[in-house]
Design the sequence.
């Protein structure tokens, strides 16, 4: 299956005088994917990111955004079409939170009313109370400011987001919370995100794919699982020993979540011929309000696919989508099952996680 | 006590003249500040883009600033004749250094992260100036304008020597006639005017801040 490519770097370099701070970096970012760039301080992450929206012009190579070479685009238009969360938050101190969030819309001369509506919508998206809109940035905590930074980047509804250590300035707990929220948000908005961090855990957690930079060179590129299995000495040292286990402890269970499980309406027979039943032992019974009533093992269905209400086994204890793969496996081991339902507090039944897809991570299955 | 009552009596007698001179004094000072600001802020913006070339301009303004006001007025006299013109010209020249310097300092002092964020969101250079750089530099620029306003009210006094007909006329008249009441009748309005300008500009600054942030 070929996927659409949103951002592509082809042998991109950046020179400051004689210094090659970015050295022939190439990678592609697929539409809807979170691509993480990681590496030690000064390795060129920010520089690479800023070349994508041309805040820093590249010295050589090609940068394509949605298939077009940025050299052929108007920089102002290019930047307006890409959301940007900068490393040092960079809220405008003389503007209210509302004006900060709607800043792009002001630049593009959208009506005031629309700016206000959008700010109200977005402040909710990032989980801050509505009355914060009238505050000034200095009246917010570091973590709250970073949320506003994310909201601001989303204002013009760009397809592509560049995020430079967006959760850098907060304590580990808030950081984890922000990461979880980003993952949830990403599930609904499906942006293409280029994400810079120097925290390996964060990279494993949010990244579909990770690129490791070292002194301007891209030394390793792949899924979290591919990264931890790299032979490269620098990469091994950089990610640290035991990273293999860490990966399981950080990769969110949503990455192996299955939504294509077989279902049947509560008052209907199961279509035993359906292709989707292949490889599954159970069929899940969905109620008229789309909640899951429980499941029935295929083996206990009548031969015509009918069943009675008392055959339905209630779902076992569900887990939150925020847990890691490791925790999910642990839950399965405890419960003596090979799968686990995932239920979100707010949005309800999300799908199920199977032991075999967790194990599939080891084998290097994509995502 | 008798002296105080006597002074008020005197002040009341010449009130019409004091009023006329105060008005002239005020508009000359205001014109000086306004023209000085209107020339220095744009130049300051330009040279903040090229700080090295800008230093030359600031040094030049600095040299002009050090010329004693009497000498400057005397120098302008042959070109501009008597009256308000050489006076206002001198005021403009004196206002250049503080306003230029603070405009440059203010703009260069804008948080680079804020500028980068605005640029990254697609602000054009003009939008960056209007929406980010100027509003953020405003307090520093306004501080200079307030200093200049107070300074200008004082320098306008010297204008009386080239026939500018401000409150300096009373002060110099009092000095030559050794009449303290006349000196006071000129000095008190000058002081009040300086304080008033400072206060009003402070109010204006707050207004501007609100306007720029909601524009
Ligand atoms: N304007 C510049 N002139 C010269 N060198 C620069 C310039 N900007 C950045 N560099 C150098 O380029 C290198 C990469 O910088 P960059 O900001 O991309 O690092 P980074 O990976 O984002 O680091 P960090 O994790 O600390 O943010 C650094 O060694 C830096 O010193
Ligand atoms: Mg950086």
Sequence:
């Amino acid at each position: 299956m070929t996927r659409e490519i949103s951002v592509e770097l082809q042998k991109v370099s950046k020179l400051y005088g004689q210094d090659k701070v970015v050295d022939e970096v190439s990678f592609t970012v697929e539409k809807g994917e979170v691509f993480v760039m990681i590496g030690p301080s000064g390795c060129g992450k920010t520089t690479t990111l800023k070349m994508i929206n041309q805040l820093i012009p590249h010295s050589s190579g090609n940068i394509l955004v949605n298939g077009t070479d940025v050299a052929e685009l108007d920089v102002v238009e290019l930047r307006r079409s890409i959301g940007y969360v900068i490393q040092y938050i960079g809220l405008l101190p003389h503007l209210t939170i509302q004006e900060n969030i709607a800043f792009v819309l002001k630049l593009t001369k959208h009506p005031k009313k629309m700016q206000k509506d959008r700010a109200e919508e977005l402040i909710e998206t990032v989980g801050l109370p509505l009355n914060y809109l009238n505050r000034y940035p200095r009246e917010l905590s570091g973590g709250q400011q970073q949320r506003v930074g994310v909201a601001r980047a989303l204002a013009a509804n760009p397809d592509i987001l560049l995020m430079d250590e967006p959760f850098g300035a907060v304590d580990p707990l808030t950081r984890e919370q922000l990461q979880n929220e980003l993952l949830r948000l990403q599930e609904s908005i499906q942006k293409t995100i280029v994400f810079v961090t120097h925290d390996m855990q964060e990279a494993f957690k949010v990244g579909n794919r990770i690129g490791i930079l070292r002194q301007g060179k891209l030394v390793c590129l792949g899924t979290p699982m591919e990264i931890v299995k790299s032979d490269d000495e620098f990469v091994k040292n950089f990610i640290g020993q035991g990273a293999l286990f860490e990966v399981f402890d950080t990769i969110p269970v949503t990455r192996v979540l299955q939504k294509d499980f077989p279902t049947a309406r509560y008052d209907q027979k199961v279509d035993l011929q359906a292709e989707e039943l292949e490889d599954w032992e159970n069929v899940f019974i969905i109620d008229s309000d789309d909640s899951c009533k429980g499941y029935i093992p295929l083996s206990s269905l009548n031969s015509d696919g009918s069943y009675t209400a008392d055959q339905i086994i209630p779902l076992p204890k569900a887990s939150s989508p925020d847990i890691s793969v490791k925790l999910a496996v642990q839950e399965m081991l405890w419960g003596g099952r090979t799968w686990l339902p995932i239920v979100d507090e707010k949005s309800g039944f999300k799908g199920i996680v199977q032991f075999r897809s967790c194990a599939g991570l080891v084998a290097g299955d994509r995502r | 006590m008798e002296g105080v009552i006597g002074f008020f009596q005197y002040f009341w007698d010449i009130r019409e003249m004091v009023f006329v001179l105060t008005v002239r004094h005020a508009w000359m000072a205001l014109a000086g500040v306004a023209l000085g600001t209107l020339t220095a802020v744009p130049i300051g913006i330009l040279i903040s883009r090229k700080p090295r070339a800008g230093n030359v301009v600031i040094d030049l303004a600095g040299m002009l600033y050090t010329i004693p006001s009497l000498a400057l007025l005397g120098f302008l006299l042959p070109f501009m004749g008597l009256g308000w013109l050489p006076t206002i010209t001198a005021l403009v020249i004196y206002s250049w250094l503080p306003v230029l310097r603070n405009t440059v300092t203010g703009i260069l002092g804008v948080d680079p992260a804020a500028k980068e964020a605005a640029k990254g969101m697609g602000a054009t250079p003009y939008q960056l100036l209007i929406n980010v750089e100027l509003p953020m530099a405003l307090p520093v620029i306004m501080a200079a304008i307030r200093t200049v306003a107070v300074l200008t009210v004082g320098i306008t006094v010297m204008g009386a020597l080239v026939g500018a007909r401000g409150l300096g006329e009373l002060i110099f008249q009092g000095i030559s006639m050794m009449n303290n009441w006349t000196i006071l009748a000129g000095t008190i309005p000058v002081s009040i005017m300086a304080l008033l300008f400072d206060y009003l500009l402070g109010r204006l600054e707050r207004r501007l801040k609100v306007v720029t942030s909601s524009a």
In short: The longest strand of chain A covers residues 5-16. The mean pLDDT of chain A is 86. The interface with chain B takes residues 50, 53, 55, 76-81, 84, 86-96, 99, 103-104, 106-108, 152, 162 of chain A (CB under 8 Å). The two ends of chain A are 14 Å apart (CA to CA).
